[in-house]
Amino acid sequence: MTQPAIRYELIKTCKQTGARLGIVHTPHGSFETPTFMPVGTQATVKAMSPEELKEMDAGIILSNTYHLWLRPGNDIVKEAGGLHKFMNWDRPILTDSGGFQVFSLSKFRKIEEEGVYFRNHLNGDKLFLSPEKAMEIQNDLGSDIMMAFDECPPYPATYDYMLQSVDRTTRWAKRCKEAHARPEEQGLFGIIQGGEYEDLRRRSAEALVELDFPGYAIGGLSVGEPKDIMNRVLEFTAPLMPENKPRYLMGVGSPDSLIDGAIRGIDMFDCVLPTRIARNGTLMTSEGRMVIKNAKYARDFRPIDENCDCYTCKNYTRAYVRHLLRTEETFGLRLTSYHNLRFLIKLMEDVRQAIREDRLGDFKEEFFEKYGYNVP
Ligand SMILES: O=c1[nH]cnc2cc3nc(NCCN4CCOCC4)[nH]c3cc12
Ligand SMILES: [Zn+2]
Fold first, then answer.
1. Each residue of 82-137: pLDDT tens digit?
2. How far apart are CA 339 and CA 321, in angstroms?
3. How far is the CA of 39 from the centre of ligand 2 (A)?
4. Which percentage of the chain shows pLDDT scores above 90?
5. Collapsing DSSP states into helix, strand and coil, what is residue 79?
């Protein structure tokens, strides 16, 4: 029996919450969980070098099937020796399947049983993506963790629409598994759908668990629903996911959601938020969000965050970063991106330590109090 590409090791569960400390083992190394995964959609985490990502302790990064299929083309990445070689990143890579991008980027789209017909968001050309095509692209990219091709339904969606969508996503997941060329080298995660409907989340989870994937994601969230709906869905969906496999919440990346997700048993998170808001000068700090272009920082020669250990905070001041952002200097984007990513990676380190000490509930209260979220 060949070793599966992905193995989850549960280290301990927090006595105060449902959080768990774990390690995910992959062909390109292991990473501790709960973890935040920086997003490198087009084979680069925008403005960051692989050396800087290692320096800030990024354990795993994301890249995107849909975007790399369009540019430069999965054939070119394959000829380069795969995504790890192409982007000079030798740690784990997870690729999303492209389903979400079809629904979020393409206006015209037609969902059929065999797949989705839509338009290239760059030039309007007609395109078709299917479970088999999504698996072929991810096989060429050579990611350590591939995501099954699914439908991320619009929010809100009717119960009837959601029921049809869940069952089609399950059929597509089965086709992905059948098209999976190298299961000993690449893991394939199923994506649980079902919206806010508890019975449909159960229906989706049970059908996917039956297909025995090495890991599972919760999809269909962070699509505009209120945070209390997300938390409620997590509360009844996480326990349906196998305890001995990684649980990945897709598209979630604000500090409060990461902590609330970990408390409910989530192990992996990703979001473009930290790097996207960094590029317009919004910084995550231990005292809350900071809009660095604000005039009040013009003569403020303190670090962005006195409690941050990152390259930006150790070497530059608020006044300098503000100046770079206002003059649209590229170096400014690098400094703000570096800080926001390190902030979330460090937050996950602190969450893991709180789990070791069985005090993640207390940690949440302390963090929310300082960050300015009103703890409910
Ligand atoms: O069901 C899903 N299936 C496959 N991929 C996904 C990716 C997803 N990403 C989000 N949310 C991302 C929301 N971002 C917040 C920050 O600004 C950009 C969008 N929700 C997602 C759901 C799915
Ligand atoms: Zn910093």
1. 999 999 999 999 999 998 998 888 778 999 999 999 999 999 999 999 999 999 99
2. 11
3. 18
4. 94
5. helix
**C-alpha span between 243 and 310 (Å, rounded):** 34
- Cα torsion for 72, 73, 78, 80, to the nearest 10°? -20
Say which residues have a Cβ less than 8 Å from residue 139's Cβ, sequence separation at least 6. 146, 181, 182, 186
In the numeric block, the tokens 């629904």 are attached to 103
Angle between helices 159-178 and 131-141 (to 10 degrees): 50
Secondary structure letter of residue 5 according to DSSP: S
Q: How many A from CA of 336 to the centre of ligand 2?
A: 8
C-alpha separations of 365 from 214, 240, 248, 360, 370 in Å: 33, 27, 24, 9, 9
- Predicted ipTM > 0.90: yes
- Ligand 1 neighbourhood includes 223 CB (under 6 angstroms): yes
DSSP label of 24: E
pTM of the entire predicted model: 0.98
Give yes or no for residue 192 CB within 6 A of ligand 1: no
Q: Which ligand is nearest to the CA of 105?
A: 1
Instruction: Establish whether residue 152 lines the binding site of ligand 1, counting it when its CB lies within 6 angstroms of any ligand atom.
Output: yes
Region of poorest pLDDT, from 96-110, 172-186, 291-305: 96-110
pLDDT at 196 over 90: yes
Residues in the chain: 376
Q: Which of 342, 351, 251, 334 is nearest to 59 (CA)?
A: 342
Give per-residue pLDDT as tens, 201-254.
Answer: 999 999 999 999 999 999 999 999 999 999 999 999 999 999 999 999 999 989
Ligand 2 is a single-atom ion; what residues have CB below 5 A from it?
Answer: 308, 310, 312-313, 339
Six token digits for residue 156? 């809100």
Helix (H) or strand (E) holding 126: strand 126-129
Residue in 152, 237, 282 to alter for ligand 1 test, most ligand atoms within 8 A of Cβ: 152
Residue 1 has pLDDT above 70, yes or no: no
